[in-house]
Design goal:
The protein is of the alpha/beta class and about 325 residues long. It has helices spanning about 5-15, 40-50, 70-85, 95-100, 140-155, 170-185, 200-210, 220-225, 225-235, 245-250, 260-275, 300-305, 310-315, and strands at about 25-30, 60-65, 90, 110, 130-135, 160-165, 190-195, 215, 240-245, 255-260, 290-295, 320. It has two domains: about 5-135 and about 260-285, Response regulator (Rossmann fold, 3-Layer(aba) Sandwich); about 140-260 and about 295-320, Rossmann fold.
Length: about 325
């Protein structure tokens, strides 16, 4: 999104009739997206707010600020979000630390794939200590489960390649948990870092040299944005691939195991409700996801010549035929 477009969208977001109504509470939604495109996570937040009795268009207004471009454009739009002076800002993805660096004074509720303590967004999970709180999707307990699921699908795995971005806050914790889980199963790990989105292809070429027979991809926005490219590579190299969010399976990964993002974003409505009713973010501990899901892609399994065990199919929350 260029700056002119960002300004136009900022003016659009701030000029709705409801903004002039004194009894309408104003919330800003800030993160990656395109105007007019489906917004499943925003829809989930709306459901969460509806659960708490808020009715959009009656006593609640949600203004959207969507980023499509570089971090510089996101930083520019973050300042516009702050200037619009909502009562609560909801931010997600890579824009969480970007907004934090812009130093908003308003309460902020976030959904973050990384570790918010390592990103210096909060002081601790139990005591955020500032005006930011929300949910972190980096639950280290789930990391080992992914490798166990992968091993259950493909018992003969001899080496796992791990594709990850070192700059993703908390990535070193996720790497350590992955290596420990693999070690318990007697599986060596080949760690392949991705330094930037532009480095995806080079990292995939590096994976191909590791002589691995399975692939674990740490979930974050950059990896998800290249999910189809990574899935195509994994299929070409005959690598069963797993990650943490269901959209990776939709992109062609063999499996995913991790937080149910729609339920998690619905949970953000609880935070926004608490803040609108007077709670301080510093008093609301950061949560991990409360709902976990496993998604299996049978089309990919067939292409790889893999028969997924019936017991695993029965445990799956969703199966892609």
């Amino acid at each position: 999104m260029n700056r002119r477009r960002a300004i136009q969208f900022f003016l659009l977001a701030c000029s709705t009739p409801a903004a002039a109504q004194r009894n309408v509470r104003r919330v800003a939604w800030f993160g990656a997206g395109r105007p007019g495109a489906p917004e499943p996570f925003l829809d989930a937040l709306r459901l969460g707010l509806r659960d708490k009795g808020w009715v959009e268009g009656k006593d609640l207004e949600i203004a959207q600020f969507l980023t499509e471009g570089s971090p510089d454009d996101s930083a520019f739009l973050a300042r516009q979000v702050i200037a619009s002076n909502p009562e609560v800002i909801v931010v997600y993805g890579r824009d969480v630390p970007i907004l934090h660096r812009a130093k908003p004074q308003q309460p902020v509720v976030f959904a973050f794939s990384g570790n918010p303590v390592d990103a210096k967004v909060v002081e601790s999970f139990a005591h955020p200590g500032g005006n930011f709180t929300g949910m972190s999707f980096m639950s280290l307990e789930l990391v080992g489960k992914r490798i166990e699921v992968l091993r259950e699908i493909v018992p003969q795995i001899r080496r796992i390649a791990v594709l990850a971005r070192p700059e993703h806050a908390g990535e070193h914790r996720e790497r350590a948990a992955s290596e420990a889980a693999a070690a318990r199963l007697g599986i060596p790990v080949a760690y392949v870092p991705v330094q930037s989105a532009e480095g995806i292809d080079g990292a995939l070429r590096a994976v191909a040299t590791t002589k691995s027979d399975a692939l674990v991809v740490f979930p974050d926005g950059v990896m998800l944005g290249h999910g189809a490219r990574i899935a195509k590579f994994a299929l070409e190299e005959r690598l069963p691939a797993i990650s943490g969010w269901d959209r990776f399976a939709d992109s062609g990964f063999l499996a995913t195991y991790g937080p149910n993002l729609r339920i998690s974003y619905r949970r953000l409505g609880h935070y926004v409700d608490r803040v609108l009713r007077g709670a301080k973010p510093s008093e609301l501990p950061v949560e991990f996801p409360q709902a976990v899901e496993m998604v299996l892609n049978l089309r990919t399994a067939k292409a790889l010549g893999i028969a997924i065990p019936p017991s695993l199919l029965q445990r799956a929350d969703r199966v892609i035929d």
